[in-house]
Amino acid sequence: MKDFRDFALKSNFLDLAVAVVVGAALATLVRSFVTNILTPAIAAVGGYPDISSLELKVGGAVFRYGAFLTALIAFVMTLAVVFFLLVRPVQRLRARSARKEAESARECPYCLTKIPKAAKRCAACCAALEPAP
User: Mind telling me which residue stretches traverse the membrane in this protein (predicted)?
Assistant: First the structure.
């Protein structure tokens, strides 16, 4: 039991659980927006009572492509929300921190290891270094 508790508290288990719950809530919210607001607006412009009720009958088969279009719109909107609210800001933060890291480090001219700018000796090869400008 202690091993499981350590796993749950020290790993990304809790972060993953929160992400799954928030993702499910986001999917429900987007699905509701698409079903109740967006597709009726598209249907009104197109002259249909409801886009999800669009279907094609071939022989005895019924292809309900309106329901598929509704699901596709919900998927694309969920993807856009995740990209613009999560992925893009995280990418910008990582790029900013990488820039700061690059500004605070330099390469050892002898072994090419990254070292702090203020270092007087390389930690990898122990070479004496000139002061950084």
Answer: 12-30, 62-87
State the chain's mean pLDDT as an integer: 85
Report CA-CA distances (Å) from 11 to 14, 18, 23.
Answer: 7, 13, 20
Residue 36 lies inside a defined structural domain of this protein: yes
Count of other CB atoms within 10 angstroms of residue 74:
20
- Write the pLDDT tens digit of every residue in 21-65: 888 998 899 989 988 888 888 888 888 778 888 899 999 999 999
Total number of domains in the chain: 1
Name the residue type at position 81. Answer: V
Range of the domain at 79: 2-105
**Dihedral sign (CA 82, 83, 85, 86):** positive
Please check whether residue 42 lies inside any domain of the structure. yes
Which residues are paired to 106 by β-bridges? 115
If DSSP states are collapsed to H, E and C, what string results for 59-88?
CCEEECHHHHHHHHHHHHHHHHHHHHHHHH
- Measured CA to CA, the distance from residue 62 to residue 105 in angstroms comes to 65
Percentage helix, strand, coil for the chain under 3-state DSSP, each rounded to 5: 65, 10, 25
Residue 122 falls within a domain, yes or no? no
